[in-house]
Amino acid sequence: MRDITFTVPCYNSEDYMERCIDSLLAGDECVEIIIVDDGSTDGTGEIADNYARNYPEVVRVVHQENGGHGAGVNAGLALATGRYFKVVDSDDWLDEDELQKLIRNIRKWEKSGTVVDLVICNYIYDHLYENKTKRMGYKNVLKENEVCGWDDIRRFGPSQYLVMHSLFFRTEVLRRSGVKLPKHTFYVDNIFANQPLPYVKTLCYLNLDMYHYFLGREDQSVNEQVLMKRIDQQIRVTKLVSCCADLKKVRAQHPKLAGYLTRNISIMMAISSIHLLLIGTPEAWEKREMLWNYVKNHDPELYHTLRFRTLSGFTFLPGKLGAGITLAGYKAARKLYQFN
User: Is the Cα dihedral 292, 294, 298, 300 positive or negative?
Assistant: First the structure.
């Protein structure tokens, strides 16, 4: 069994996918790389096939009709044979030396019979064209190199989340969680990073600067203008994340995990609400109201928490004055944390 299955969903990625795949090949035959050509119309499929011919023991290629990022992840997970599963977007890449260190840890755990359901590593916001980077780590949340449970985690900082970039899930945990991402929908990484968490019993933080998350492409889904155009997809994912776990059940077993999941829903509600305010049309204001009502009807307790006890409540302030306060806070945070 390979140590890690990497899935690389690709759509018209010919300009940058080789940087990504080359970084994964550093794992040699300890890893499996599944390149999913999601109906590309450029040279992506040909590049993928070349990798499969040159590295037949490591690289597999799936050619499928366009179904979006989620469909690519689903295809990779269905075929994965590695102990761990990792999604790497085709414009991102891994640090090759850090990957080798991770593989050594996985081998050590397997040799000792230690089961680690989730491995957490650092990731880098890489503003490549501006020659700027921002490292996101978890030393304040988890002890390094220590296998632990949810009851052992400490408080997350304001900009800290367990995002897809930082997570290596045990493949069987993902399958047990039943996670399946919707097609033709952006921002589904939020579902992938949250739905499996209640199925994780053991986790370990490795202080490795592993994942480079590229920022700067004009068509990137986290670009503010692009997100505004895709706001209906952001709303859909926010709704799905808000009900992907039974928070009462989770709270009874792991209150710290329940608190984290609630906090993550809060930030997603805030992102959706803020971008609807940035759009600023009467229809957008109505959609913001409908989103909050959806949560209220689905889980009144969660709604009360989000509305009155978390950051997201400040994105649902009444009237134009409330909207102005919300947008001023958003612009200040964007400058501070450089998130798009």
Answer: positive
Q: Which tokens in the block code for residue 7?
A: 């899935």
Radius of gyration of the chain (CA): 20
Assigned token pair, 272: 């959706």
CATH of the domain at 82: 3.90.550.10
Q: How far is CA 41 from CA 14, 124, 226, in A?
A: 10, 30, 21
**CB of 52 within 8 A of CB of 61?**
yes
Sign of the Cα torsion 197, 224, 186, 306 reads: positive
180 and 209 belong to one structural domain: yes
Q: Is residue 219 part of a domain?
A: no
Q: In this structure, are residues 266 and 272 in contact, taking their beta carbons and an 8 Å threshold?
A: no
Q: What is the pTM of this model?
A: 0.92
Give me the long-range contacts of 149-157 (CB less than 8 A, separation at least 24): 149/201, 149/202, 149/203, 149/254, 150/200, 150/203, 150/254, 150/256, 150/257, 151/254, 151/256, 153/256, 153/257, 153/260, 156/260, 156/263
255 contact partners, CB below 8 Å, separation of at least 6: none
A 10 A CB-CB count for 240 gives 19
Domain extent, residue 37, equals 4-214
Query: At 94, phi and psi to the nearest 5?
Result: -110, 155
* Tens digit of each residue's pLDDT, the chain (340 residues): 999 999 999 999 999 999 999 999 999 999 999 999 999 999 999 999 999 999 999 999 999 999 999 999 999 999 999 999 999 999 999 999 999 999 999 999 999 999 999 999 999 998 877 778 999 999 999 999 999 999 999 999 988 999 999 999 999 999 999 999 999 999 999 999 999 999 999 999 999 999 999 987 555 555 678 889 999 999 999 999 999 999 999 999 999 999 999 999 999 999 999 999 999 999 999 999 999 999 999 999 999 999 999 989 999 988 888 888 888 888 777 766 555 5
Residues 69 and 175 in one domain: yes
Report which residue type is found at 305.
Answer: T
